[in-house]
Automatic annotation (TrEMBL):
Catalytic residues as annotated in Swiss-Prot or TrEMBL: 108 (tele-amp-histidine intermediate)
Residue span, HIT domain: 9-122
Residue ranges annotated as motif Histidine triad motif: 106-110
GO molecular function: hydrolase activity
Species: Paracoccus lutimaris
Name used for this protein in its record: Diadenosine tetraphosphate (Ap4A) HIT family hydrolase
Keywords, ordered alphabetically: Hydrolase
Domain of life: Bacteria
Length: 124
């Protein structure tokens, strides 16, 4: 696992150095709108802890942070009306590393909805 780079843009958002459009904040998790939305709903859910990627978070975060993160995802889908009780669903994506084409090296889950998201993976 590469070392966590505390200068990445999401670390700067967490430190309050850069503004963000917050959707939800919990003790261990922040959700905010993507600056370049790919769908009518495009929210990034990130842990406040320093984790490079999903596998880093899943392997190394304390249980309380993992539970908080996933409960936050559920609240975001409900609050934005894309959950299956109210809406027509969503896609959750996390990119990791070079082959995942991860731009920001702080674990984040994209929540995309508000339209059909089409096929899951386009030809590379
Ligand atoms: P990745 O390719 O790492 O999975 O996705 C990174 C995402 O972060 C991209 O969708 C990009 O638009 C978003 N992003 C990059 N910089 C900023 C920023 O300063 N603010 C917000 N809200 N989103 C950002």
């Amino acid at each position: 696992m590469p070392a966590y780079d505390p200068s990445n843009i999401f670390a700067r958002i967490l430190r309050g150095e850069i503004p963000n459009d917050t959707v939800l904040e919990t003790p261990h998790t922040l959700a905010f709108r993507d600056i370049r939305p790919q769908a009518p709903v495009h929210v990034l859910v990130i842990p406040k802890g320093a984790y490079v990627s999903y596998d880093d978070f899943a392997a190394n975060a304390p249980d309380a942070e993992i539970v908080d993160f996933h409960r936050a995802v559920a609240r975001v889908t409900r609050d934005l009306g894309v959950d299956l009780d109210q809406g027509q669903g969503f896609r959750a994506i996390t990119n990791a590393g070079e082959h995942g084409v991860q731009e920001v090296p702080h674990f984040h889950l994209h929540i995309l909805g508000g339209r059909s998201m089409g096929r899951m993976v386009q030809p590379g």
